[in-house]
Amino acid sequence: MDKLKVYEKPTCTTCRKLAQLLIENGVEFERVNYYIKPFTKNKLKALLKKMEMKPHELLRKNEAAYKKLNIKVNNLSEDEILDLMIRNHDLVQRPIIEKGDKAVLARPAENVKKLF
């Protein structure tokens, strides 16, 4: 059986809600703090493929780090957006849950149910 892996920022409220939901339901999972163990470009691409999402859909546009960049996403390629998220972890929506060949953005936390 594939182990559930949660890519998170431990101080994120949604990440904490997800962890609590999993614990309450007796689901074993591995936590990956992607601020300590950053995504590689290949890993983020693989997760996006599993989620059937494009980089611009995973980009946190309301984040202060995004606004500070003062860029127009429409002018960037998907690959450039991916590079931005690799360089600045705050730009990645979270938490991301991976199980085998599937992954979901658990925003809201209840989206985890899509994996079961």
For the termini, the CA-CA separation is 12 Å
Please identify the top-level CATH class: Alpha Beta
Q: Which band does the percent of strand residues land in?
A: 15-25%
Largest sheet: 4 strands, mixed
Order of helices and strands: EHEHHHHEE
Number of domains: 1
State the secondary-structure class: alpha+beta
- The number of distinct helices, counting runs of at least 4 residues, comes to 5
Query: What low-confidence regions span 5 or more consecutive residues with pLDDT below 50?
Result: none
What is the residue-mean pLDDT, rounded to a whole number?
90
Tell me the CATH architecture: 3-Layer(aba) Sandwich
Quantity of strands, as a count? 4
Cα-atom radius of gyration: 14 Å
Outline: globular
Strand order of the largest sheet: 2-1-3-4
CATH superfamily: Glutaredoxin
CATH topology: Glutaredoxin
